[in-house]
Amino acid sequence: MKTQEIIGSGKLRIIIILSVIASILAIPLIAMQFTNEVDWTLSDFIIAGTLLLSTGLAIELVIRNLKTGTLRTLILVVILLALFLIWAELAVGIFGTPFAGS
Q1: Is the dihedral of CA 88, 93, 97, 99 positive or negative?
Q2: What is the rounded distance in angstroms from the CA atom of residue 26 to the CA atom of residue 72?
Q3: TM spans, by residue (predicted)?
């Protein structure tokens, strides 16, 4: 694979990551227009965007540096598990930390 192809595919994956983040954050933004059940503030969007971006970039880093294998899969699962646990803690406080949203 040529250097230009590697660089081009990396840029494409970053664009995909940003597009997915924007799509995910659009869901509560649109929901807020139709119901009072969803009540996100600007800081909620910033925190969620930061969490999703850091997760996406961590996954990209693992994919770029570890080509195949069990270690790559294990690290990706740990990254996603951390995302889900942090998101749940911020949303409903499953661990009871001061960061809980409830």
Answers
A1: positive
A2: 30
A3: 12-34, 40-62, 74-96
- Per residue, what are the HEC states of 4-16? HHHHHHHHHHHHH
Q: Over the stretch 9-42, which tens digit does the pLDDT of each residue have?
A: 778 899 999 999 999 999 999 999 999 999 999 9
| Cα 102 to Cα 92: distance, rounded to the nearest angstrom | 5
Q: CA–CA separation, 55 vs 48, rounded Å?
A: 11
Tokens matching residue 63: 């994919």
**Alpha helices, H only, the chain:** 3-34, 42-65, 70-92
Secondary structure class of 39 (helix, strand, coil): coil
pLDDT in tens, 59-97: 999 999 998 889 999 999 999 999 999 999 998 888 888
